[in-house]
Structures are given as C-alpha cells and as structure tokens.
Amino acid sequence: MAITVAELLAEPQLGLTLLAGAGGEGNRITWAHTSDLPRLWEWVTGGELMMTNGLSIPADAKGQVEFAEELVKAGASALAIGEKMHAPELLPEFLLACDRLPLPVINVPYPLPFIEIARSVAEASLLEESRRLRQTARIYDLLRTAGTSEDHWQSLLQGLATELDSDLFVMDRRCLHPWNPGGQLLPDSLEKELTRLTGQTPTKSKKFQWHYLRDKHVLLMDIPTHPNALLVMLPNSIAHPDTVVLLHTATILGLELSRTVLSLENQRRLGAEFLLQAIDGRLGIADVENRLTDFDVPPHEFLVISLSADDGERLANVHVELWRHGFSTACFHRSNTLHLAVSADLSDDLLIHSVGSNVKIGISAPSTAAGIQRARQESLWALGTAIGTGTRLVRYADGPSWLGLTSFEEGNALVQRLLAPIFEYEQSEHGDLIVTLKTFLDTQRSWQKTAAALFAHRQTIIYRMRKISELTGLDMTETSTLAQLWFALQIHEAMQAQSPAPPRHSRSKS
C-alpha cells in the first residue's frame, strides 16, 4: 500500500514535523509533487503530497483558508511547506481550518531538498506499483469476462465498481442522463451539484478532476473516444483508487462503448436496407411487421420521422442518441435528411433533446406496417411545413398550414393538377421544362439570367416557357399563374427531394 502521512513523518532522516491537520495522518500519499503556482490545487489528481516553497500561499487569512479548502476538494493528501523560504506567516485561521478539514500541513526543515521527500514516497510506492499492475490486469480481464450477453455493459460496470470499491456512473455530460439504456441514475442531490459543475465551458473543464461535494469526494473523468461520455465515481473509502488504474478504467469503458457503437452501426445499415425496401413497396405487410419487430419498433403503432439539417453530419448519431434513451429505430440517411421509424411513445421533448439544435423535424401520424409508405409521405409533408414556416417540429395534421394547404393529399393534388402534364411530356420527350421553370422563377423571371444559368440560348428558354403554357393551359404572363406554379414546385421539391423519382403519367396512345 502507499505510504501514509504518519509513516512519512516517522522517517527520521527527513526530520519532518506536523504543523496542523493531525486528523489526516492516515491519508495515503500516492505521489509527491512540487509547485509554486498560485492555484496549486489545479495540479492535484488525487492522493498527492503537494510541496511548495510558499509562493502559492496567500498572505491573508481568508485566502489561506480558501487555499486549504481547495486543496482538500481537489483530493490532496497533505501539504508540505519549505522552512525559511517564501511562505507568509501561517495564520491561526489557516491552521484551524487545516485541523477541521483535515489537511495535514508538514514543515520541511531547511535545507532538506524536496527531492528527498519525493524519493521516500517513490520508494514506498514500489510495492504499490506491483499491486497496481495486478489490479490493472484484473480490470482488463473484466472486459473479456463480461462477454456478449445483453447485460454485459452492466456486468462490466459492476465488476469495475467492485474492483475499485466505488460507485460508478457513466453519464452524458450534456444532460447527465445515463449513457446506456437502463443505466443507473445519479442520486438527485448529486445530479444537482454536478449540473452546476458540468455547466462550465469546455476551456475550464478538466478531463480528470476530483470535486468535494457534500463532504464527499467525487471524480469526474472523460471517457476516451466519446466526447460527451463522463465517468462519475464515488469512492466508498477514504483512500482514493490509484490514478493510473482509473485511467485504464476509463480506457476499458471507452473500448466497450466503441464496441457498442460498432454494433449499432451494423444495425443501422441493416435498418436502412429494410426501410428503403418497405417504403419502395418491395415487402409485404407481414414482412414489414416482422422486420420492424426485429428492430424493436412496434409494428402496430410507430412513427416515421424526417429530420433535415444544413449539415448532414449533425444527424449521423441521432439513432445512437435515441437508443441511449431507450428507443430503437430503423433509419436511412439521404443527402441532408434522415428518415427513421420509431415507437409512437417517443415524446417531442426527448426527440428534440436527442437531435440537437438547428434541425427541422417532421413527424407522421401514428402508423401501422400497412401504412408505412403513407407515413413517409406525411413525415415529408410535415418536414416541408417545418422548413417553410420556420417551425422547429411539426406533426402531420397538427402543425400550421403550409402555403395555404393542410395535408399531403391537398399538396399532391395541386402538384398533379399543375405539373403532371409537364412530367408526362418530359417522360416521353426528355425535355428540361421543370428545370427551366424553376430557374426562371428563381431568377426573377429574367430570360437572360435563365439562359445564362442553363447555358442555353434566350430563344430556347422562350420556347420552353411557351411549351409549359401550352401543356398546362395557363397564361405565363399572369402573376397568379406564376404564383400557383411556384407553390406547386415548392411542395413537389419538399415531398420528392429525398424520395425516388416522382410518378409520371404515361402518355395515352391513340
């Protein structure tokens, strides 16, 4: 075991004396570190003897008391001060605070070099190093013995907690929810304290830091490779687990989380293949029901949700975030839009929490397997409404009207009435009328700008617009006509941008 403060004081060749904090003589010293920086506690990782020539110690009573309290909060085992160096007078308030905390304060006689103390601590740590190696081997073995059962994550976490004699929690730093579904919740009182701590900006947040909360030490430690995964540890004994062992513990948890993410990514690929087949109508109702059940999505009451973001990467982990909160999905990602099938029990608040900011959300009405294609159309309509109205989340038939229309049927009817003749013509003649119409409207009805954008002659553009007028029977010089066509194009693009090519009527043959 590591040397205690009392054992270090008892070494006659050092000549150390205790000035205050006798109640902490049983503290174990994992390392001896020298620093004269102002905020000495920021260099503490837990269990250190902090040695200073005194430049770190404030001269006033309030500052000295706060100095002692911060060292204890950070997990320092003791403070050693060089005699006849730069330390101010140690005031009675400081010594009383050290007795109360307790924080052992050791006088280092002049001219004993700090390195002699560090050597004594290091020599005493040789046996501790052997113990550390054995414990490290045991915790890595836990990764192997946890196996691949459904509860292997909880088994691994429980095994690590037993080995470290601590309570362990793996949380999402952003919201302090358990990182895995079914994970243990933080005690309410601790969650409130940690909410305040984790609200710090990233530049002020440390990846490994002990905190002193409600008379107990709590470790907050980042888990590698997962930016928002936070290990919270509450030791059950006064002696803190070894820092190196804790670093290995975080690595093991990171490896297990990575294994889980790989499994989820494989599920995502399978889900994307299934959902595309279902939406394209290549699966029967029974097949859709069975496959939804395979992905833990209720086949008799689920939602289809369409999510859009300017940066498609924002949507890459939505399926993982929802899984972590207990909702499995089948999903596919196309362009900057994500489409997913999920249980109808998913609340709007949890969905918004999982997808993050700057994402528009369209949600279908609750559906069954037989209605999965229509549910996709409803979610796209709701998404178009969200984008068109600037609303964060829209549920189909519950949201605001979009361009004066309230349903997919109304929108589809408008598209078919105005644009179907053009689709029919383009299917048989391979024309560019829709592209020309959209460009013409986007360039404020300028013949010259439209021709330049399409690399075509101005007369060609005029001919195409006349053809559109002929096919639709509309007067292209009328503002009302252009407004109707613009509405139809907006609806068509929103409903079809992430869908297969729109259905086109075949030209009847005489």
What does this protein structure show overall?
Helices cover 46% and strands 16% of the residues. With 510 residues, the protein is of the alpha/beta class. The protein folds into 4 domains: 118 residues, Udp-n-acetylmuramoylalanyl-d-glutamate--2,6- Diaminopimelate Ligase, Chain: A, domain 1; 95 residues, Beta-Lactamase; 132 residues, Alpha-Beta Plaits; 89 residues, PucR C-terminal helix-turn-helix domain (Arc Repressor Mutant, subunit A, Orthogonal Bundle), CATH 1.10.10. A hairpin with a 6-residue loop joins strand 10 and strand 11. The longest helix is centred in the middle third of the chain and has 37 residues. The chain is elongated, with a radius of gyration of 34 Å. The C terminus is likely disordered. InterPro entries: CdaR-like_regulators, PucR_C-HTH_dom, PucR_C-HTH_sf, PucR_dom. This is Purine catabolism regulatory protein. Pfam families: HTH_30, PucR.
Care to give the gist of this entry?
Residues 433-491 form the PucR C-terminal helix-turn-helix domain. By secondary structure, this protein is of the alpha/beta class. The chain has helices at residues 5-9, 61-74, 92-100, 114-124, 126-145, 152-164, 188-198, 243-279, 285-294, 318-324, 348-355, 372-389, 408-429, 433-442, 447-454, 458-472, 479-496; strands at residues 3-4, 17-20, 28-29, 31-34, 48-52, 78-82, 105-108, 166-172, 208-213, 216-222, 229-235, 302-308, 329-334, 337-343, 360-363, 393-395.
